[in-house]
């Protein structure tokens, strides 16, 4: 499985960083990990990602790859086995990319606004947007993979890896943003998906404690509202 | 070259839409075109892209593909010949994706703010950001393809197709946003790239008139500042 040295620069609770861990762990690739201090970034990170100065970065054989979905795509090309993430079929591949991108545009965006909301109006809007996004994911699962647990059918694919990191933030969304995740009667496919993702060994391995993530969400909130 | 029916729903001056035209035209794929009225979208568009209700959409054999970069990726998978856009090498592919994505995040974003600026401060900031983005593209060309005209070296690749649509907006940025494109002495690689892109037959074929785009930029501006 070795194809040279791989190193990940990231931050433990980053949804974007978790995508990289999940992809590498699903492939069984061993790698070095470097935790970044986001308020005092390492010289290595600044040199590896001079455009955005953001985690995650994968450094593979000395070459930096930036942007989480591009990194997951790269990982899938370099280590196609034993678990291919991007479908071969062009349409299925486009669908997987679409829902991965939806994670950034809609799920992450709404969750981020929820945690940082400074007024009840902002909080309510973000909460509604997050609920809408989760309903769309529930519908998409039913359309793309009816009766199956994952976007990828019986196993996780590119969309699953992109979206799975949001799961460990739900407790934070609840504690900090007052978001109530609708139950299985309202979002049956999403709940089935969450349970299926949580049962994957490679995912469990890299997922931080939900309580720790919720505490960190509180830290972000305090900074956002200027009380920290 | 035929692999079933292809139809593009788009809007003539959309940078995102132009990517789809450029990719199909570089491949020599024939397709039907449907111009959308963005203020009165067709039922077909709303059904094909229920999540975002946005152009461009490619409908291939009855199946809709949404989001311009995902569409270009799809086109490259379905019609890999005679002009492959995504490099086979995983690192080169990641680099091409990175700069395509940079187009959305930095070039489009700055240009959009420039046209819609309602204060001189906003206009100046957007203008500086756009200049910065173009400088980064100039540097990137020199790093990725030294001495070559395109991000793809001797021919256009995924990054070139993603970034080429910005070229026909420069006149609009200038007329509406007062943006002065730095000359070849300051951005030698970018100017070489612009000239090379403009000389590609498939690009010329689909590129709208610069004056018409500039007029349309004025329309957007008037709507943005509330005087239309």
Automatic annotation (TrEMBL), chains A, B:
Residues 89-216 form the GST C-terminal domain. GO terms for biological process: glutathione metabolic process; toxin catabolic process. Transmembrane segments: none annotated. One of its GO terms (cellular component) is cytoplasm. It holds the Pfam family GST_N. SUPFAM superfamilies: GST C-terminal domain-like, Thioredoxin-like. Keywords: Transferase. GO terms for molecular function: glutathione transferase activity. It is an enzyme of class 2 (transferase). InterPro entries: Glutathione-S-Trfase_C-like, Glutathione-S-Trfase_C_sf, Glutathione_S-Trfase, Glutathione_S-Trfase_N, GST_C, GST_C_Tau, Omega/Tau-like, Thioredoxin-like_sf. Its EC number is 2.5.1.18. The keyword Transferase applies. Residues 4-83 form the GST N-terminal domain. CDD domains: GST_C_Tau (cd03185), GST_N_Tau (cd03058). It catalyses: RX + glutathione = an S-substituted glutathione + a halide anion + H(+). Belongs to the GST superfamily. This is glutathione transferase. It comes from Selaginella moellendorffii (Spikemoss). The lineage of its organism: Eukaryota, Viridiplantae, Streptophyta, Embryophyta, Tracheophyta.
């Amino acid at each position: 499985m070795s194809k040279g040295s791989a190193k990940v620069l990231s931050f433990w609770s980053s949804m974007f960083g978790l995508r990289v861990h999940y992809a590498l762990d699903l492939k069984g690739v061993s790698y070095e990990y470097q935790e970044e201090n986001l308020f005092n970034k390492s010289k290595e990170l600044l040199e590896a990602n001079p455009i955005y100065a953001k985690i995650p970065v994968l450094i593979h054989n000395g070459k930096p790859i930036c942007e989480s979905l591009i990194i997951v795509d790269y990982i899938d090309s370099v280590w196609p086995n034993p678990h291919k993430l991007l479908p071969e079929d062009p349409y299925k591949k486009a669908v997987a990319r679409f829902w991965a991108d939806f994670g950034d545009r809609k799920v992450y965006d709404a969750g981020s606004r929820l945690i940082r909301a400074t007024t009840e109006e902002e909080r309510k809007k973000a909460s509604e947007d997050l609920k809408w996004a989760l309903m769309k994911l529930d519908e998409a699962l039913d359309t793309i993979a009816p009766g199956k647990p994952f976007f990828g059918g019986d196993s996780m694919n590119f969309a699953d890896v992109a979206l799975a990191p949001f799961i460990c933030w739900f407790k934070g969304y609840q504690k900090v943003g007052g978001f109530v995740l609708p139950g299985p009667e309202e979002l049956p496919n999403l709940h089935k998906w969450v349970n299926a993702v949580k049962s994957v060994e490679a995912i469990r391995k890299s997922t931080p404690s939900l309580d720790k993530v919720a505490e960190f969400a509180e830290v972000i909130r305090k900074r956002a509202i200027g009380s920290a």
